[in-house]
Amino acid sequence: MSDADTPDVLVLRKPTHGMALSDYAAALRERLPEADVRVARTPAEEREFIERAPVVTGMEIDEELLAHAAEIELFACAYAGTGHLPLDAFEDRGVAVTNASGVHGPNIGEHVVGNLLVFARRLHEGWRRQRNREWRHFQAYELQDSTVTVVGLGAIGRAVVERLEGFGVDTIGVRYTPSKGGPTDEVVGFDPDEFHDALARTDYLVLACPLTETTRGLVGAPEFTTLPPESVVVNVARGPVVDTDALVDALRSEYVRGAALDVTDPEPLPEDHPLWNFENCLITPHCSGHTPEYYARQADIVATNLDRLAAGEPLENRVV
To answer: Which residue from 87, 206, 234, 304 puts its CA 20 to 30 A from 240's CA?
Structure first.
């Protein structure tokens, strides 16, 4: 597509989930066999290549590096969230920005369902007894006939609900505009009375929403008091959606049965934090989206948008 000095697609050098950027570049080349896809290995290469690249993709970019981008038409962010980007600077320059919304649906959806099954079958108690070489029976629960409330009906929330089909559960969705409906049996909004009514009927609360002014501290002391004592909270959203001090108190006081956290506040969770010591709190280090398909799905979005860009059509996942 381009001459030897002009890359068509530049991949910035910050990786994610510990996965090599060469894998991302390979996925892009597979989908764009005629394109010159380059990976910047150093800050100098980033500054050099970005001067001529019309399409740039990566986890982040600052205004200083953006200032070197003379020919940029599209920045394809490889994260679903774009709040860390200089969006005003992109808009001022007329540069389109897209995100990676949708790439996390299958992987994080499976992560959530896995945690629901762990708590339903009390597998974490089985692991504890195995570790102690303790052959002593315990009673588990059934996921069937429980109520799962999913906060956020974006790609991740929808993927969770889809994967719960066949388990015989009732589902409640929480979204900003409940009139839009959703894949759940029932949809409510963030009105406190509606939300607490849903919480009072919830066995498993799944947080899969973006962090906004509305969702920051969404689940705090009043919400933990409303949730039934046998309920479990699964957070794959952002740590600050849950009030951490209130969560610690809820686990200590058995206001809820347990929690599964892929995100925490603070993050990373300090070594001396009390959450590490609760046997009914399962913690993973913000890695629920870490699968080999991550870059492949993001490459699909970029390849589709290059075709749309050339044809003057609306871009998929555009945020600016």
So the answer is: 87
